[in-house]
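Example record

One chain of 284 residues, shown exactly as stored in the release files.
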Amino acid sequence: MRSHRGKADLDAIARFLKTCEAVDLPNEYPSVSDILMQFDAPSVDQQRDIRLWENAEGQLIALAGLMIPTVGETVDGFLWFRVHPKQRVDSLYRNIIAWAESRMQEVCQERHLAVKLLAGAGAEQAKRMTLLENCGFRIERYFLTMVRSLSEPIPEPQLPDGFTLRPIQGEPDAQAWVELFNDTFIDHWNYHPDTVEAFNHKLKNPEFRPDLSVVAIAPDGTWAGFCDCYIPKDGNQSWINPVGTRRGYRQQGVARSMLQAVMQQLKVEGMETAMLYVDAENRF
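Predicted structure tokens for this chain:
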């Protein structure tokens, strides 16, 4: 096990992720693009939050990282990992989890805050789920991936009177978007405040499409909702994530209108399907 060596590792990591992607679940979170973006994310400690495992020949067999929020009253570190298809043995998985536990203990000691280690498993990943449970994890939340064909008719958006939609305009929108996100998700499970730095880093993601993403603006100029979208470089599937409506503007059709507007634009871009990642317990 060793730490990340920066640009010198990127080619090997890209090849490794492509090998894993060929056999793993489609659309597994985080995506390959998300993982690669983490290597220069402002919240990531490159030397401490990413680990690589190699075999005796120096070939990469496992990669793991922690997404650790920089602000908040508690620290919930999300562990992601990929293991080479020919190296998927319990001992390696346990080694990855042990590293993550040790790293989160360091965070606890440094910040003097309560910490928690989170990890995800798809419904089809029974082995991973069993392994996580055997290591002390328990199911805390379910999330769904919803899919919508864009070949079917998409209704015209019906915004409330006086509301408008416009695309995200890059860094000038950073502060307002972050305030909107935080006010929208402050009552959501596992909420951690977003930051301007994180928003500006998102703009560097080649799959993120601010020109197709939208914000909804109320008649008085208040930002009422947002809907981000991503178009992966390969294929004809697009992602819509996140989408949210500020408290006080919910149950008025704002989110539905944003989704319809974004899906219309994705269809024009040649996408055949749109996927949405949602909390199964979202009541809004």
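Notes: Residues 2-140 form a domain with the Aminopeptidase fold (CATH 3.40.630.30).
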